[in-house]
Each structure stands twice: as structure tokens, then as C-alpha cells.
């Protein structure tokens, strides 16, 4: 659905933003995985069916972590919602259903979203790191999830979101700290998973996408001008075998499947392009990671960051 209330939507013929029905999907294939061609190389992960299925599965993992809430920011009858890096569009679809009177926009580099969506939802192909073609102070909520390896300039993104939020509107980010942690020192010194996380950080740095750790997000929000910042950090166990509570076992089971299904896509492009590994070296290394993630003796987890902040009412 096009939003006629925003005169900038669809009015600029030179804009790189295009609705999905006008964009011909083009893809590149590398090491058996499919990647987006628009802004090729900007996003290091594939967009093939295997990855899209994993992304939808991870959406349900995040819902479990959030006690089946789609957002944490306190919203009252939002009118406009923007989802950056929407992926399969599953969160945007759920939000459009949850708030049928709101206009919801989901943007991504890949036109992989479904065609049949709620009438108040519009998908666009766009690069959120370029200047946005929306009116300033026009959104009640701007949302991101798992953009950790997609952002070259976090401060700039947060400032840009600030500019386009209504006074009193919220930016909400859900992300992963890719490091692996243990509260009882059960991660071995030669841990493949720990090595993987360091390589992931290094690879992202080399393509110009520095990944924050969990403790950095609050400062990023503060420096961009947000107030009433709320941070929630949840543990995501690497498997279901060692956690004691039923909820942590459930999250561990989801996380294990997510890692086993996703580790090839997370690694093959980044490690071969940025770190100079051969595909064969990546495959052999990932065998060790998969084995380690399934061990009951290693009590490892990742930190999931849920953070939101409000644009002050007196801000422009």
C-alpha cells in the first residue's frame, strides 16, 4: 500500500527506492549459495531459500525470547512503522496485522518478501545506509533486527533514524553479540566456536562493518540523542542439553537448529571474501563448530540485545 500522506514516497523518479512489483530480481551464485545483486557485497549473507527459511525460524526464536511480544517500546496507536532490513518480511507482516490502522513499510536489499501481505504493508527495495526518501519526523517506530553485519556506520544510522522519528517516537533494535560466553569457564581454550566468533568480528571489520558487543548499544543510543533508553540482554544457550529451566532448554533447542542451519551461510561468503579462506577450509572448520555446539559439557551462550530509545518531544 502506498502512503499518499508522505509526499516523498514514490514522487522522486530518480530515487533508488523501488516497489517490489517494479524491480526485476537479480541474484549472484557463489559456493553454492545465492546472494543479492542489488548493492552486491554490501550484505555478506545469502538470500536463498535455505537462509530465508532459517530467518523465519529465527523470528520465532526471538518471539520466545521476548515472551511472544513483537516489540518492547510502549506504542499507543502507531500510525507509521518502518522496518529496516526486513528480510522475509515476517516481522513487518505480523506488525501490520497487529496494528491494522498503521502504515507499515519494510525495506531490504533483496525482493524476497511475499506478494500477498496485509493491505497496510508495503515492501521496498532500498539501502538504508543511503539517504532516506521519507519526510523527517514521520515514523512512530523504526525497527531493526539482526543488522549486525550490515551496518558500516552505527552512529550515522541512529542519527538518521532519529531524524525520521516523530518527537516521542521510538527506535528499537534487536541484535546478537556474536561472542560466546560461559558463566562457569566451560569453553575450552581451543574452542572452535570462540575462534569462529573472533573470525566473524575480524571478517566484518575487513568489509567495513564493525560489530558492536552487547555493552556498547546504550552508549550508541545516548550519543545519538535518545532518551528513556531501555536495554534488555537475554542469554541464548548454544544447545538444550545443559540449561536447567524449561524455557532455556527450549531456547537452546531453537538456537542449536538456527546455528546448524545457518552457520554455512554466516561463514562461507565472509570467510572466503574477507579472510581469504578456501571453501574447503571453511567446510572443515565448520565441522568442528557444529560438533562443539552440540556438546553438553560446554555451557556456552550468546547475548541477545533488545534496546529501544525515545526521540525527545522537544526534538526536531
Automatic annotation (TrEMBL):
Output the superkingdom of the source species.
Eukaryota
**InterPro entries reported for this sequence:** SAM-dependent_MTases_sf (IPR029063)
Q: Where are the transmembrane segments?
A: none
Xref: Gene3D superfamilies: Vaccinia Virus protein VP39
Q: Name one Pfam family in it.
A: Methyltransf_23
Name of this protein: Methyltransferase domain-containing protein
Organism of provenance:
Polytolypa hystricis (strain UAMH7299)
Q: What's a Gene Ontology MF term here?
A: methyltransferase activity
Amino acid at each position: 500500500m502506498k502512503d499518499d500522506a508522505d509526499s516523498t514516497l514514490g514522487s522522486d523518479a530518480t530515487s533508488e527506492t523501488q516497489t517490489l512489483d517494479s524491480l526485476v530480481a537479480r541474484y549472484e551464485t557463489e559456493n553454492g549459495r545465492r546472494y543479492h545483486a542489488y548493492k552486491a557485497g554490501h550484505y555478506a549473507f545469502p538470500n536463498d531459500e535455505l537462509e530465508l527459511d532459517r530467518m523465519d525460524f529465527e523470528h520465532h526464536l526471538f518471539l520466545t525470547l521476548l515472551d511472544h511480544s513483537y516489540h518492547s517500546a510502549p506504542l499507543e496507536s502507531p500510525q507509521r512503522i518502518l522496518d529496516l532490513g526486513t528480510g522475509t518480511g515476517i516481522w513487518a507482516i505480523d506488525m501490520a496485522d497487529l496494528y491494522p490502522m498503521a502504515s507499515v513499510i519494510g525495506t531490504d536489499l533483496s525482493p524476497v518478501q511475499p506478494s500477498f501481505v496485509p493491505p497496510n504493508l508495503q515492501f521496498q527495495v532500498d539501502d538504508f545506509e543511503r539517504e532516506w526518501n521519507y519526510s523527517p519526523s514521520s515514523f512512530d517506530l523504526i525497527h531493526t533486527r539482526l543488522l549486525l553485519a550490515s551496518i558500516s556506520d552505527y552512529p550515522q544510522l541512529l542519527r538518521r533514524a532519529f531524524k525520521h522519528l516523530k518527537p516521542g517516537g521510538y527506535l528499537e533494535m534487536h541484535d546478537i553479540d556474536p561472542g560466546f560466553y560461559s558463566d562457569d569457564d566451560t569453553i575450552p581454550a581451543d574452542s572452535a566456536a570462540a575462534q569462529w566468533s573472533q573470525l566473524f568480528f575480524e571478517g566484518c571489520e575487513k568489509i567495513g562493518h564493525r560489530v558492536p558487543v552487547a555493552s556498547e548499544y546504550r552508549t550508541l543510543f545516548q550519543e545519538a540523542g535518545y532518551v528513556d533508553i531501555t536495554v534488555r540482554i537475554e542469554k541464548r544457550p548454544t544447545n538444550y542439553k545443559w540449561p536447567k529451566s524449561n524455557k532455556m532448554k527450549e531456547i537452546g533447542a531453537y538456537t542449536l537448529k538456527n546455528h546448524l542451519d545457518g552457520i554455512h551461510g554466516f561463514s562461507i561468503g565472509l570467510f572466503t571474501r574477507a579472510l581469504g579462506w578456501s571453501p574447503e577450509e571453511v567446510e572443515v572448520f565448520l565441522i568442528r563448530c557444529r560438533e562443539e555446539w552440540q556438546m553438553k559439557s560446554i555451557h556456552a551462550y550468546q547475548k541477545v540485545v533488545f534496546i529501544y530509545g525515545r526521540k525527545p518531544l522537544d526534538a526536531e
